[in-house]
Amino acid sequence: DYELQINELCQEVEDATAAEMAVLTIESFEDESPWWYATQIGELWGVGDEAEDNGLVFVAAISDRKYHTATGYGMEAILPDSRLGAIQRSVLVPHFKREAYGEGIFKTLQMYAVEIEKIYELEFEGTEGAPKAAVGWRRFWQGLKEWFCPGLIGLVFIFMLILAIFGKGSSSGSSSSRSSSFWSSSSSSSSSSSSSSSFNSGGFGGGSFGGGGAGGGW
Question: Where is the composition biased (Low complexity) (predicted)?
Fold first, then answer.
């Protein structure tokens, strides 16, 4: 029963560190962006300790096939956006693609808890069997290529343009504009449904959220 495991893990993390994790599954984000929806849930529910703002909210819209994890101010240093994205792509997405939603959420939360363990120098029982090696060299290299290669191409382009302008000869170079998007966020509206499921959705500590987080689709 993954719902039970999710609740137990969230409770264990909260008891040991005061950090709070909330999970919500819905049918559709409707007219809201996933980022806005998850962040507002965090604010309205007050997820996280009021003094430390160490809350985390995961929301998945099944019909939209989109998800987002929002982090409170204090959680952003523990789980930076880049780390969140890497965990989601390597752990969450493969499970969601085969409709193993409960398992995917639990394994993803395990990975989040592993990062919390490192900061607090603890070991949670709920992280036993966590896919700790899932985000390894392959994901690191993929992320490096994703961010580094477009920048390298841009530097080469600038260098060649300088050579064309200041180099010998009368050749004139026309530069073509090249647009590259490193982060794409699109929110599409789909048919609404009131069906939703939440785990650990009450009794939070009054934490605040400032826009940190990462999301995507499957």
Answer: 170-201
Residue 126, class by beta-carbon neighbours within 10 Å (0-12 exposed, 13-18 middle, 19+ buried)?
buried
Q: Is 165 helix (H, G, I), strand (E, B) or coil?
A: helix
Strand order in the sheet with 196-199: 196-199, 20-26, 55-61, 66-72, 209-217
Q: What kind of fold does domain 2-134+194-217 have according to CATH? A: Diaminopimelate Epimerase; Chain A, domain 1 (3.10.310)
Please spell the DSSP secondary structure of 77-126, one letter per residue.
TTS-HHHHHHHIIIIIHHHHHTT-HHHHHHHHHHHHHHHHHHHHT---GG
Tens digit of each residue's pLDDT (9 = 90 or more) over 95-154: 999 999 999 999 999 999 999 999 999 999 999 999 865 444 444 445 555 555 566 666
List, in order, residues 6 or more apart from 172 with CB less than 8 Å away. 164
> What confidence tens digit (pLDDT) does each residue in 164-175 have?
676 655 444 443
Sequence spans of domains, the chain? 2-134+194-217
